[in-house]
Amino acid sequence: MELVREIEFEEAYRKGFAFVDVRTKEEFEEFRIPRAYNVPLFTKEEREKVSEVYYRKGEKEARLYALEVVGPKLHRIVKEIKEIKEKEKNVVVYCWRGGLRSLAVAAICNLTGVHVFRLKGGYRAFRNYILKRMEEILKDKEVIVLYGPTGVGKTRLLRELKGEGYPIIDLEGLAGHRGSVFGGIGLEQPSQKMFDSLIWKELENLKDSPLIVVEGESRKIGKLFIPEPLWKKMNEGIKVLLELPLEERVKISMEDYGVSRFPKEVYLEALKRIRKLLGGEKYKEIKELIERKNYPKAVKELMVNYYDKLYSRSIPQTQIKLRSKSYGEGKEKVKELLDNYLWSSG
């Protein structure tokens, strides 16, 4: 009987197995298989020390040092994985590329009667799988891309529709960014690898839907890039433009961006990044508005003198325009459009 049984990610995922990441807490937080548990074999400092011993004294000495570090922790590690296994039934352990860390943990678990699998190829194999899988899921999908100038409430609208059961992928929510120079205020972005994983999981959830709906974005959201398979389908998709009156857009932006919740210095710092694009006189005017905390007027000026000009240059040609007097009316028009597509596809 083999001591450690390896399993491919696709099989483990299809069977609903739980994943245990044995990399450091820092590695786990940067990127991981969605919903995985973290039972680290080393701390960040311990792993760095093992690597140092390896480069100074060689592999044999590094392994002996690693055993010295890990030995006192083995009981706790096995106990934690046993508790996960009791809750989840089947467990697959993994590290970065199916190396010694996952091998060591899987071996000691199996030797002590806590039977687990080891992910073949580790996280790297999972990443290769999801990039290929995204292409497969999107191959025959219709993609509707919702555009609209800043303040029409695209993100809010799509999130509300998702809550009502429509096939929505909230790219800005997954990216932790609102897609503008002020879009990162109060938010934190995941790593690119984590972002890709989250998009894959959303696509898996919608694999049986004839279409998916996303917000029109540039390829880059903050520091992150939309994965190539989805970006390609967005460019090929049905493009819908939602339009609302300027005053309505100012009101929505004030709410969605949580304007006034943060110190004025936060907005002033972001404003500096577009100083050249605004021009000295307009920059000074908006800066003074923010300093006086006249946020509605500042938002309106930013829309007219920055966002709308930028948007008019970047928006692709749209096939469908939905003009509305209010957010509520716009939402109903989008729902009617999606219902027609879903009905005709079903």
Automatic annotation (TrEMBL):
<dbReference type="GO" id="GO:0043828">
    <property type="term" value="F:tRNA 2-selenouridine synthase activity"/>
</dbReference>
<dbReference type="Pfam" id="PF00581">
    <property type="entry name" value="Rhodanese"/>
</dbReference>
<dbReference type="Pfam" id="PF26341">
    <property type="entry name" value="AAA_SelU"/>
</dbReference>
<dbReference type="InterPro" id="IPR036873">
    <property type="entry name" value="Rhodanese-like_dom_sf"/>
</dbReference>
<protein>
    <submittedName>
        <fullName>tRNA 2-selenouridine synthase</fullName>
    </submittedName>
</protein>
<dbReference type="InterPro" id="IPR027417">
    <property type="entry name" value="P-loop_NTPase"/>
</dbReference>
<dbReference type="InterPro" id="IPR017582">
    <property type="entry name" value="SelU"/>
</dbReference>
<dbReference type="GO" id="GO:0002098">
    <property type="term" value="P:tRNA wobble uridine modification"/>
</dbReference>
<dbReference type="InterPro" id="IPR058840">
    <property type="entry name" value="AAA_SelU"/>
</dbReference>
<keyword id="KW-0711">Selenium</keyword>
<feature type="domain" description="Rhodanese">
    <location>
        <begin position="13"/>
        <end position="135"/>
    </location>
</feature>
<dbReference type="InterPro" id="IPR001763">
    <property type="entry name" value="Rhodanese-like_dom"/>
</dbReference>
